[in-house]
């Protein structure tokens, strides 16, 4: 589904990622961990085509990302839902409008029916908050809303960048359950996190593999987490 082959990436300073190879199979559930600044967000950005590899090959849905034109890249991105680290909401818009944004941007305004949005927001426990504005939400509510927005186009892949970064244990478990539910629906899930307790909790719910960035490379971690 997503395959990195001998990929390196540099922002202009030193090389951040070097000779990285990894493969995310359809329907798999992975965590990506590593110290702050190791390159977790960078790998997610590469996976959804926001960055291109400096060298090496990245294929998404069996297509070499470097060969895609703008329209093909846009189509590819619609199949990937992203939960950004900072949620990235537009504060002047309501929660319903924010969550529907991927639909409106892709010209599917008519399909953004209020009942569908209500159903989606109910799934993340925000069914009564359609008309709230992002600044009125707690950290956990914002994270859940960001997850709802990430899946509104029914993506095949969900990438989540520290989705439990600013929430308490109970809320992180709730978010985890939602991500596991998405995986059980067949979606490929990749979660970047520092949170080892989240990883341990996931292991009783889903067959999760753990990738660790160390010394510019990505390795599959052992079962000793
Ligand atoms: N646009 C950019 N230009 C230059 N350097 C960047 C850019 N974005 C990230 N970096 C640098 O690349 C390194 C990796 O950043 P990245 O955000 O991928 O790490 P991370 O593992 O996700 O970190 P964290 O856990 O703190 O979120 C950091 O040293 C960061 O400062």
Automatic annotation (TrEMBL):
Keywords: ATP-binding, Cell cycle, Cell division, Nucleotide-binding. Gene3D superfamilies: P-loop containing nucleotide triphosphate hydrolases (3.40.50.300). One of its GO terms (molecular function) is ATP hydrolysis activity. This is Cell division protein FtsE. InterPro entries: AAA+_ATPase (IPR003593), ABC_transporter-like_ATP-bd (IPR003439), ABC_transporter-like_CS (IPR017871), ABC_transpr_LolD-like (IPR015854), P-loop_NTPase (IPR027417). Coiled coil: none annotated. One of its GO terms (cellular component) is plasma membrane. It comes from the Bacteria. It comes from Ruegeria profundi. Residues 2-225 form the ABC transporter domain.
